Structures are given as structure tokens and as C-alpha cells.
């Protein structure tokens, strides 16, 4: 499981500063939840971790290795960035599944294309991942024949099949009907219990309170406080 160190990270969109000197350590094998008002920079910070957003100053290190830059101001090659991203899984609010492929094909495709597995090995690994998220009986379904919660579980299976050392979740339950949120959070709890390093942008305060090891509260681009859930959430 990976450790992430975020040091004095700044991010500008034109003149607008979306991240202001953010410092945060994401400990290995633990769950860190990023919470705070809409527009406070949570998603931007999450995306700086895999360099989907280019931060402008500061450092993001994964297991000690700087991501995005070889040295301050000098961008790393696309090839090196892709190599680093191989150990990072990401799950978005939108599930981004291929509509013309079954659940199994959606999970196997990346293993074939990105990892170079044979079709047979990829399918075997995809089956394991789908069983793990409770979809052993839906592998032949296309996304249109899955509920939103099931589609998001396929997206999680697709990420974990790549055997990441770090998983990033950007509001993974926000697009779901309320009755489908629980099944996705349950799968995430299972991953957490296995010691996966997870960073989760969420409005699910119950999940933050009960599953997170660390909660980081952001407001207006600043990281206001980080600590164990009880100290940050002040639950009565
Ligand atoms: P959160 O995830 O906390 O809702 P975001 O990280 O999505 O916040 O956005 C932080 C701020 O940066 C918001 O004010 C948003 O409008 C702005 N922002 C995000 N992406 C862009 C972009 N591509 N260009 C300009 N402004 C952006
Ligand atoms: P969310 O609330 O789910 O983070 P948003 O609607 O804030 O999504 O953003 C959707 C997309 O638009 C993102 O790619 C984000 O980077 C971009 N975006 C957000 N705010 C701005 C902005 N003020 N100007 C330009 N792009 C933006």
C-alpha cells in the first residue's frame, strides 16, 4: 500500500487559486476522506495526486517519488507518468463504462490493453474482481442492464483488477439514487478492511465518521484541519 505526501501544493486556474499551500500526509493502508463545501478544492487536490491536474508549485510524492515533475518546473515524460499511474486506481462520480461491452469485458479490457494479459488471463482476473464487488452473477450484463450502484461496482472492479497500491475516489456515490449508495460504500469498506490506501472525496459523513482513519477538511482552497474523524467531525 502506498503513502502519499502532499507538500505546499498550489494550483491556479488562471488568476483563481484553487489550492493554497496544501500539506497532507496520506498514510499507507488507511482511508483518508476529503470533506468540505462544494468548490473548496477537494476534487482538484485528489486529481493532483495522480497528476490529472497539474499542480503549479509544491510537491506530491508517492512512496517517495515525485509525480508529474522530474525536478521543480520540469515535467516528467508521458511515459514515466503512465508508469507511475499504473499503481493508482481511480473511481469517478460518473461510472464511465463502455456501453457496448459486458461487465466482464469492461473489467478485462484494461488488463488486455494496458497490462498485456491474454484474453483468458484477463477474464479470469476480471471474474475475481467482479465477484469481490458482489457481481458474480451479473458479469454478462451490459451497463444498461445494471443499476447505478451495480455500474459503480463494475467501475471499482475495473480499478482493483489492475492491482493498484492506491485508490482515489471522487464522490463515488454522488450520482446514485439514495437507496443504491449503501452497496457501493459496503464494497469500499471491504477494500479498506484489506488495507488498501484510499483517498475519498465524499459528502457521506457517516462513511467519513465510521470508516475513515483520517478526515481532512477543506475550505476555499485551504486545508483547514486534518485528523481522526472524532476530532474533525465533532460528533455529539
Ligand atoms: P470541490 O471538489 O471541493 O467541489 P473543485 O476542486 O471541483 O472543488 O473546484 C475548486 C474550485 O476550482 C471551484 O471554484 C471550481 O469552480 C474551480 N475549478 C475547478 N476546475 C476548474 C477549471 N478547469 N477551470 C477553472 N476553475 C476550475
Ligand atoms: P463537480 O462538482 O462534480 O466537481 P464541476 O461541475 O465543478 O464538477 O466541474 C465539472 C468540470 O468542469 C470539471 O472538469 C472541472 O474541472 C470543470 N470546471 C469546474 N469549474 C470550472 C470553472 N469555473 N471554469 C472552468 N471549468 C470548470
Write the layout of secondary structure elements.
Layout: E1 4-13, E2 16-26, E3 31-35, H1 42-49, E4 57-62, E5 65-66, E6 69-71, E7 74-75, H2 78-85, E8 88-91, H3 103-113, H4 119-132, H5 148-160, E9 166-170, H6 178-193, E10 197-201, H7 205-210, E11 214-219, E12 222-227, H8 229-233
Parallel strand pairs: 3-10, 3-11, 8-9, 9-10
Antiparallel strand pairs: 1-2, 1-4, 4-5, 6-7, 11-12
Helix pairs in contact: 3-4, 3-5, 4-5, 5-6
The structure holds adenosine-5'-diphosphate (2 copies).
Plain-language structure description:
GO terms for molecular function: ABC-type amino acid transporter activity; ATP binding; ATP hydrolysis activity. With 236 residues, the chain is α/β, with parallel strands linked by helices. Helix content is 34%, strand content 28%. The chain is built from eight helices and twelve strands. The chain has helices at 42-49, 78-85, 103-113, 119-132, 148-160, 178-193, 205-210, 229-233; strands at 4-13, 16-26, 31-35, 57-62, 65-66, 69-71, 74-75, 88-91, 166-170, 197-201, 214-219, 222-227. Helix 6 links the parallel strand 9 and strand 10. The relative contact order is 0.19. The chain binds adenosine-5'-diphosphate (2 copies). One adenosine-5'-diphosphate (ADP) binds at residues 43, 93.
Amino acid at each position: 500500500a502506498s503513502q502519499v505526501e502532499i507538500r505546499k501544493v498550489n494550483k491556479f486556474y488562471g488568476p483563481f487559486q484553487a489550492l493554497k499551500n496544501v500539506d497532507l500526509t496520506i498514510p499507507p493502508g488507511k482511508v483518508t476522506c476529503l470533506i468540505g463545501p462544494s468548490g473548496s478544492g477537494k476534487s482538484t487536490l485528489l486529481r493532483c495526486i495522480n497528476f490529472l491536474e497539474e499542480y503549479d508549485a509544491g510537491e506530491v510524492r508517492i512512496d517517495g517519488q515525485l509525480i508529474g515533475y522530474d525536478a521543480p518546473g520540469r515535467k516528467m515524460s508521458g511515459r514515466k507518468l503512465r508508469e507511475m499511474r499504473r499503481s493508482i486506481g481511480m473511481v469517478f462520480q460518473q461510472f464511465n463504462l463502455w456501453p457496448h461491452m459486458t461487465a466482464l469485458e469492461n473489467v478485462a479490457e484494461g488488463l488486455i490493453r494496458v497490462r498485456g494479459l491474454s484474453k483468458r488471463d484477463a477474464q479470469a482476473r476480471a471474474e475475481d474482481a467482479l465477484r469481490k464487488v458482489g457481481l458474480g452473477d451479473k458479469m454478462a450484463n451490459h451497463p444498461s442492464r445494471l443499476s447505478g450502484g451495480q455500474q459503480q461496482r463494475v467501475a471499482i472492479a475495473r480499478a482493483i483488477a489492475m492491482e493498484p497500491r492506491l485508490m482515489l475516489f471522487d464522490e463515488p456515490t454522488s450520482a446514485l439514487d439514495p437507496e443504491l449508495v449503501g452497496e457501493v460504500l459496503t464494497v469500499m469498506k471491504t477494500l479498506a478492511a484489506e488495507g488498501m490506501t484510499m483517498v475519498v472525496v465524499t459528502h457521506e459523513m457517516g462513511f467519513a465518521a465510521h470508516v475513515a482513519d483520517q478526515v481532512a477538511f477543506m475550505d476555499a482552497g485551504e486545508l483547514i484541519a486534518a485528523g481522526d474523524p472524532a476530532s474533525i467531525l465533532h460528533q455529539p
